[in-house]
Amino acid sequence: MKMIPLLLTALLTSPGLLVAAAPDEKLPPPEAVLRATASPPEIDGNFSEPAWKDSVRLGDFKLNTTPVPAQAKTTVLVTYDRDNLYVGFICLEPELQAKLQRPMAEERDGNVWEDECIEVYINDVSRSTEQYHVLVNLRNTVMDLFSGEKFRQHKAVEWNGHWQSAVALGPDEWRVELKIPFATVNFPAGKTELRVNFCRERYGASGEISSWSCPYGDFDKPERSGVLKNIIRADVAEIASLSWPDDSTWGEQQLELQFAAPVAGRLTLLQEKAGQLQVLAEGQVQQGRISLPYFLEEPGRWVLLLGFQEQGKAESILFASHNQLNPALFDLHRTTRIMPYGGRFQALARLGNPSVLQEISCRITGPAGQQSASWRPEQEFSPITLDCSTLSPGLYKVEYLFQLRNGRSVAHQHSLLIFTP
C-alpha cells in the first residue's frame, strides 16, 4: 500500500481505519429480519425484478468512528433463496461524474479499497476466526478476501469467492447488485442467523467512510457486525459432520460425510481450478452417510465444491472449500527482480508444508553466465540467496525447482535484470 500523508490517513488507508476515539457508550449492532424470495433476481445492477419487492431495506449508515449519520445516503436491499443471499446497494452520489474520472482498479483483487466502493463483511459468531470480505468499486472490479484460523497474520487475497456482481450508474447515484452463494461463505443449512456488515467508502472533498453497523473504528470487527435473521432454507440437507482433507495435502483423499437426517441421493465433488470445473468423484448417499474416495492430481490452488441432489429435489451446492494450499505450492513472498551489478540475488519463498519437500533449487541463467544453488527447506519462510558477483549486466532467467519427497516437483520462473549503477 502506498504511503499517505499523515493528515489524510484518516480517510485513505485500508477500509474503515480507526480515525477517532470511540464514545464510552456504543450502540448495539443492528438486526434485520429477512424474507425469502420465490424467484432469483437477474444480477444487472437494477432492482426491477419481483425478488427485490421481497427484500428488507436497510439504511441509516453511520460514520465508521462515531454513530453520526453519513452525508450521502446509502440504502441496502437484502433477500435470499435456498442457495444464495442477494444484496443490493443504492449509493447516492452528487459528485458521481467527477468521481468516474478518477483512476480505479480494474483487475480482480486490485486495490479496490482505494476506490469509490462498497464492502460486505460476512462472519459467523460460532466461527469467530473465519471471515469473508468482498469489495466492489464503480467499475465493478471485485476484491475479495478470506481470513480464518490459518490466516491470523494476513488476509488471503488469493482466495476467490463465487460472487456475482453488477454495477449500474444513474445521474447522481450508483447501484451494486451482489449474489452471494451460501456455500461460498460456508453458511450451513439449519442455521437461521448470519452476522454481516455493509459498508461504503467515498473519496474526494466530501469523502466519508460509513456502514450499517458502526464499528467505532476499523470495519474489520466481527463483534460489531449486525445480524440478519430468519434465513430459513427449505429443502436443503443439513450436514451434521464433514471430514475434509487438511489443506496442505494432495493425492489420495477420503471424504466422510454425515447428514443430520437419513437422506438419500447423489453427492458430487467438483474441483474448480483456473475457472474450470471438473468432477472429481460421485457417489450415492444412503441413510444420510457417505464415504467417498477421490484423488487430487497435481499441485496448485483449487476450490472444492460439494453438491448434493436429494431424491426428488433440485441439486444444491452445500459447501465450498477455501483455496487448497498444496505442500508444493509456494508464494514468492519477496524477490529480487532488478539488481545492480556485483550484488546478491535474494528471494523469500513461503511454503505450504516444508516437511514434504526434499529441496529447493534456484538457477540464474543468461548469455553472460549462470549461478545455481540448492537448499533443504526447514521452515515456512525459506530464504534463497545467490552470489551474482560474477554475472555481467544483462537480462537473466531465474528458475526455481521445488522437489517433493515423493519424486514429484513444481517449477517456477521469472526474469532478472542486472544493471550497471
Structural key phrases:
disordered N terminus, Coagulation Factor XIII, Chain A, domain 1, mainly beta, 47% strand, Immunoglobulin-like, 2% helix, 421 residues, five-stranded antiparallel beta sheet, eight-stranded mixed beta sheet
| Rounded radius of gyration (Å) | 24 Å
Distance between the termini: 27 Å
Q: Biggest β-sheet, characterized?
A: 8 strands, mixed
Backbone shape: globular
CATH architecture of the largest domain: Sandwich
Q: How many domains?
A: 3
Number of extended strands: 28
Describe the structure.
By secondary structure, the chain is mostly beta strands. The protein contains 2 helices and 28 strands. Strands 1, 3, 6, 7, 8, 11, 12 and 13 form an 8-stranded mixed sheet that branches. Strands 2-4-5-10-9 form a 5-stranded antiparallel sheet, with no helix packed on it.
Quick take:
The chain is mostly beta strands and 421 residues long. The protein has helices at residues 9-12, 96-99; strands at 31-33, 56-58, 62-63, 74-80, 84-92, 117-124, 127-137, 142-147, 164-169, 173-181, 194-202, 208-211, 226-229, 239-243, 251-259, 265-273, 276-285, 289-296, 303-310, 316-320, 330-335, 338-340, 344-351, 357-366, 369-375, 381-387, 394-404, 409-419. 2% of the residues lie in helices and 47% in strands.
